[in-house]
Amino acid sequence: MQSKVQAQAVAPRPVIRAQAPEEKPASAAIAMPLPEQFGIQKHAAVAKVEAREIDWALVHRKLQGAGSVCFQTEKVAQGYRIVCMVPGKTSGPLQRFEATAADQGQAVDIIMAHLDQLQQTR
Fold this sequence. Notes:
Strand order of the largest sheet: 1-2-3
Radius of gyration: 37 Å
Strand content: 15-25%
Structural class: alpha+beta
Number of helices: 3
């Protein structure tokens, strides 16, 4: 029994200090590379396009005149996509016209140009 008491007496006492552990040194700041270092020019991708009013009444008249059976406009990452389907020259399959542009007015202009060409060839 005495050996157990001696073993307990021999064990070192834990040292308790009222002191916070040393702080770790601050990590080095991360440097963000500039876009120019990757070949990206400032404001190169930003092209400001002036939006204009679209005369939807005129667009619908042209679509009806061409016999359009489908007209869809969709907002996409590149801007706007417009799809139009009109009967072909013969009673065969429908002709599909599609235009994608940064501005809705530009996409409408492309579709209207296709419809004008189609009506000139009829």
